[in-house]
Structure formats: C-alpha cells, structure tokens
Amino acid sequence: MPCAVFGASGYSGVELAWLLHNHPFFSLKHAYSSSAREEAEPLAGLYPQIAGQLDIILQPWHPDLLSQLAQEVRVVFLALPHEASAELAPILIKAGLVVFDLSGAFRLRDPQQHLQAYAFEQPNIGVDAIPYGLAEWTVLQGHEPLVAVPGCYPTAAALALKPLMHLVQGTPLINAVSGVSGAGRKAAAHTSFCEVSLAAYGVATHRHQPEICQSIGHPVIFVPHLGNFKRGILATIYAPLEAGTTQQDVELALQRAYREQPLVRLCHKPPAINDVVGTAFCDIHAVVHNGHVILCVAIDNLLKGAAAQAVQLANMYFDMPASTGLTGRGGVI
Ligand SMILES: NC(=O)C1=CN([C@@H]2O[C@H](COP(=O)(O)OP(=O)(O)OC[C@H]3O[C@@H](n4cnc5c(N)ncnc54)[C@H](OP(=O)(O)O)[C@@H]3O)[C@@H](O)[C@H]2O)C=CC1
Ligand SMILES: CC(=O)N[C@@H](CCC(=O)OP(=O)(O)O)C(=O)O
C-alpha cells in the first residue's frame, strides 16, 4: 500500500517514515517537509541514523505536487503543526486520499472547545464523524476519509483510565512527565538542553485536558511536566474509587480490556520510561490504596503517543492485525 508522510523532517514524522519503510504492507513513496526548505535533500542528511537504510528524499511540499501524489499513493500521514494539518487535510481528502492526522486539528468534538484549546477554528470537512483513534478503543470501518490520532498525554491517561471508569467515583488527578521530543524538533529556548530540568507547565490550561475528558467521558485534573530526557512519557494517576472496590476488581477490569490487545502490557511493578522507549507498547501498573487506584503508565511519546499509534490505526483500517510492523524495538532519534 503506497503511502506518504508529511512533516517527515520532524520527530514524529521521521519515526513514521522509519516504521512505514520497515512495514510488511505499507510502502513509503514520498516524504515531505514544509515549503520553507529550499531544496529536496536526503532525509538521512537530517537523521544520519537512517543512512544506508532509508534512502528517501525529503521534498519541500508544494501544492503542484498534489496530482502526482494522488495518483501514486492511497494513504497519507500528517505529522504537521495543528494549523497546517487543518489546512491541508481537506485538500488531501478531496483528492481521494485517506488521511491519518497526528495533530490536534480534528480531535475535539466540540468546536468551541477546539477554538479555546487551539486558537483557530476547526475546519468543517463535511464528514459526520471523524474517528478519534485511541486504537485499543476504536473500531474503524475502513472507509473513513480521516482518522484523528490522539495526543501523547491523552493516549497514556486514557488507556489507563478507560477500563476503570465504571469503578471511579470522583475526579482523577493526572501528573505526567514528558521528554523534550514532545515539543518537536524546532528550536526554542524553553526546550533547549541547558534550560530543561523538571517542571510543570500548562497547569490548568493545557489543550490535552479537554481531550482527556472527552476520551474518558469525565472531568480530570491534568498537570504535564517537562523532564530533561529525550523521549517517553510517564504518567501517575490517582483516581477515587467507589466504596468497596478491590485490587481484584481493578485487575479484572484491566485484563478484560486488554487481554486481546498486544500493545498494552499490564505490569507487576510500576513501569519505567526505559521499558517502553523505542517501542509501541503502553505499560500500565495499578494498585488500590486508601480508596483510590494509583496507576503508573509509560509510553514512548513519539511511538505509541504518535507515529506507532498512527500505523496501528492504519493496520486496523486495512484489516491487518493491529500490531503489524510494530512489535520491534527501535526509534530513530
Ligand atoms: N512530538 C510528539 O511527541 C508528538 C507530536 N504530535 C503531533 O504531531 C505533529 C508533529 O509534531 P512533531 O513531530 O513534534 O513536530 P516537529 O516540529 O518535530 O516537526 C514538524 C514538521 O512539520 C513540518 N511543517 C511545519 N510547518 C509546516 C507547514 N506549514 N506545512 C507543511 N509542513 C510543515 C516541518 O517541516 P520543516 O522541517 O521544513 O519545518 C516538520 O517536518 C504535531 O501536530 C504534534 O502536535 C502528536 C503526539 C506526540
Ligand atoms: C513536551 C511537550 O511539549 N509536549 C507537547 C505535547 C505533545 C504533543 O505533540 O501533543 P499534540 O499532538 O496534542 O500537540 C505539549 O505539551 O505541547
């Protein structure tokens, strides 16, 4: 299945390019950067890690390329800033392409909430329902023109909480720490090596708060943190439980949700970021304590939180096992 990656010069884009290049069914035909780059160049020029293995040329995107693209590929993955996705996705859909969008442009159902979170209006692409693709909780029909891939923090938080919401009574509190690749490749002082130690940010204002609420169907308190490591997210979640809920109730609910899901691992001890970095896995540990469940969840933000989840959804879209091409350990950056 020929496909293309937009935003391939970025962190989640290059991970997508690598996963698709090594995939048994998808075949990477085109990799695009923004049009701000002046010339085509090998993607390996930006990421020497892939030299000699993935020899694709990174082409600056230009609308004149659209008709050739539409003739040559069926599926496109967008790893672009939210507004760029919002602008490009409708054009690609109109050209007959199936779009997996990693940005936040199409995730929120409520246009007002979207406007408040992203500060631009959500485009109306004339589709009734755009699937929000939390992969383990989504059924795709295989004819949707666009799938919205969840954000990295919402993936970690919702995978842990969704199986337990019938046992939760009260507001879950979510503390999550992300590595710096979560902020993307573009240079910025607040994400530069000497500036980052460990601190909360976006307290009570982060755009993933409404996304998590939408995903689990319940309000939450969410505090993201930036840590001085490259990749990975570790979330610690405290959720009050209905009186009498036991450890066994929680474990059964998690097992029921995930026993058929190869990319979610239920763990006997709290996971470390190193357990999942370079993988498509989500590791979850749960303990009932003082009327609460304490959940520790780890994912690689660039893989399960972005590129690998997009490929997982594309696998499902084309009726393949969800984990096709995703069970190895790797990661480009
Ligand atoms: N990083 C992460 O952990 C996660 C990211 N995401 C989402 O994935 C998307 C990409 O994020 P990330 O990889 O971090 O970003 P990066 O900043 O690393 O990369 C952004 C990419 O988009 C390209 N680009 C920028 N502006 C435009 C434009 N106007 N038109 C076309 N291409 C453009 C850039 O090209 P150029 O190099 O030429 O500037 C680059 O290839 C974002 O929507 C982000 O929210 C989702 C989950 C996790
Ligand atoms: C560490 C860091 O900066 N993380 C990003 C979130 C990661 C991400 O890309 O999520 P979206 O797809 O929703 O943008 C942030 O907090 O904005």
What does this entry look like structurally?
It is found in: Cytoplasm. It comes from Pseudidiomarina donghaiensis. This is N-acetyl-gamma-glutamyl-phosphate reductase. Keywords: Amino-acid biosynthesis, Arginine biosynthesis, Cytoplasm, NADP, Oxidoreductase. The chain is α/β, with parallel strands linked by helices and 333 residues long. It has 2 domains: 2-149 and 306-318, Rossmann fold, CATH 3.40.50; 152-299, Dihydrodipicolinate Reductase, domain 2, CATH 3.30.360. Helix content is 28%, strand content 22%. The protein is built from 10 helices and 14 strands. It has a 7-stranded mixed beta sheet, with helices on both faces. Strand 13 and strand 14 form a beta hairpin. Helix 1 packs across helix 10 (303-317) and helix 6 runs parallel beside helix 7 (208-216). The longest helix has 15 residues, at 303-317. The protein is globular. It starts with a strand and ends in a 16-residue tail after the last helix. The model has no long low-confidence stretch (mean pLDDT 97). The structure holds NADPH dihydro-nicotinamide-adenine-dinucleotide phosphate and N-acetyl-L-glutamyl 5-phosphate. NADPH dihydro-nicotinamide-adenine-dinucleotide phosphate binds at residues 6-13, 33-34, 36-37, 61, 79-82, 84, 102-104, 151-152, 181-182, 184-186, 301-302, 305-306.
Outline the fold blueprint.
Elements: E1 2-6, H1 11-21, E2 27-33, E3 41-42, H2 43-46, E4 57-60, H3 66-72, E5 75-78, H4 82-94, E6 98-101, H5 111-118, E7 146-148, H6 152-161, E8 173-178, E9 198-200, H7 208-216, E10 221-227, E11 233-240, H8 247-258, E12 264-266, H9 273-276, E13 282-289, E14 292-299, H10 303-317
Helix pairs in contact: 1-10, 6-7
Bound molecules: NADPH dihydro-nicotinamide-adenine-dinucleotide phosphate (NDP) and N-acetyl-L-glutamyl 5-phosphate.
N-acetyl-L-glutamyl 5-phosphate is lined by residues 103-104, 151-152, 178, 182-183, 208, 224, 226.
EC number: 1.2.1.38
Family: Belongs to the NAGSA dehydrogenase family. Type 1 subfamily.
Main location: cytoplasm
